[in-house]
Write a structure and sequence with these properties.
With 150 residues, the protein is an all-alpha fold. It has two domains: 31 residues; 98 residues. It has six helices and no strands. The longest helix has 29 residues. The chain is rod-shaped. The relative contact order is 0.13.
Length: 150
């Protein structure tokens, strides 16, 4: 008799556990996957998409510094020493879509930190990095304001 009670309680426990695990798995499957930026992965992705001459002129630490600087720029906005940041709280920081001004700002920042890179190299890295961020889901595609959606 005791063996039957133990067997029935084990079966009931397994059914309850399977039900809980199944409902939690469904809930997690419906959630949006959060993007995770990894430097090594970003560097590999960007290095593969750079033009040959740009990839040949950049060293590993320079590419890493450019990627970190660009991510910081996107995440935190303008550099505090930048005059646009000193205009006040109502001044607008450049949007992600303004990658040419973003590249120019990043170029100034990395040149001040002592990296010897060209503006063309920085622009190519910024473009490839934005592609990486779109690929991992960190940036959404933005519709053109002139586009009516038809």
């Amino acid at each position: 008799m005791i063996v039957a009670v133990i067997a029935i309680s084990l079966v009931i426990g397994f059914i309850v556990a399977a039900g809980v695990v199944g409902t939690q798995a469904q809930r997690l499957a419906r959630q949006r996957r959060e993007p995770v930026w990894r430097l090594a992965e970003a560097a590999d992705f960007v290095a593969q998409r750079l033009p040959f001459d740009v990839a040949a002129s950049l060293r590993g630490h320079e590419l890493s510094a450019l990627l970190r600087g660009h991510l910081n720029q996107l995440q935190f906005g303008a550099d505090p020493e930048d005059e646009r940041a000193l205009d006040g709280p109502d001044s607008e920081a450049p949007s992600v879509t303004e990658h040419s001004s973003s590249a120019a700002d990043l170029y100034r920042t990395v040149r001040q930190s002592g990296l010897e890179v060209s503006l063309d190299d920085v622009e190519a890295v910024v473009e490839a990095h934005l592609d990486y961020l779109r690929r991992i889901g960190a940036l959404a595609a933005v519709n053109d304001p002139g586009d009516s959606g038809t």
